[in-house]
Write a structure and sequence with these properties.
The chain is of the alpha/beta class. The protein contains four helices and seven strands, in the order H-H-E-E-E-E-H-E-H-E-E. The protein has helices spanning 7-10, 18-36, 84-90, 106-118, and strands at 48-49, 61-66, 72-74, 77-79, 95-100, 124-127, 129-130. Strand 5 (95-100), helix 4 and strand 6 form a beta-alpha-beta unit.
């Protein structure tokens, strides 16, 4: 009268991992692409310059940011003025790219440029916004 019914007899209980692997690859590609387009980690109000030009050739650069309070950063790491020569000596083949807030004290900017010039570094660029002059 009653039949014995078992799922084990009719179904093979295996999990298909293909969609999971596809999802992981898509996430990896997304993270790889978004990390290549990362701008400086700090938001600074850049000054405008009439001579600002877009640089087409971009080699690997050492990005140094100076905020409105005069604090010097490399990435998200705070640097003291004593740390700058060691950072520049450790990266002699990388150009120096400065992101300086327009309200930053001139002394902070000058300390970075001065240390670079003492090490005979001439590969300093200052990132600015283009001026809207016609």
């Amino acid at each position: 009268m009653f039949e014995h019914f078992s799922l084990d007899d009719e179904f093979d209980a295996e999990i298909d991992l293909t969609p999971l692997v596809d999802t992981i690859f898509i996430l990896l590609i997304f993270f790889f692409l978004t990390t290549t387009f990362v701008s400086p980690s700090l938001q600074v109000n850049l000054a405008k310059a009439a001579s600002a030009a877009v640089v087409n050739e971009r080699k690997e650069q050492l990005v140094i940011t100076i905020d409105a309070h005069g604090t010097i950063f490399h990435g998200s790491t705070t640097l003291s003025r004593k740390d700058i020569p060691a950072l520049l000596k450790a990266n002699p083949d990388r150009g120096i790219n400065l992101f300086v807030d327009r309200a930053a004290p001139f002394e902070s900017f000058l300390s970075v440029v001065d240390e670079a010039r003492l090490l005979n570094r001439k590969d300093i660029s200052i990132t600015t916004l283009p001026d809207d002059r016609e």
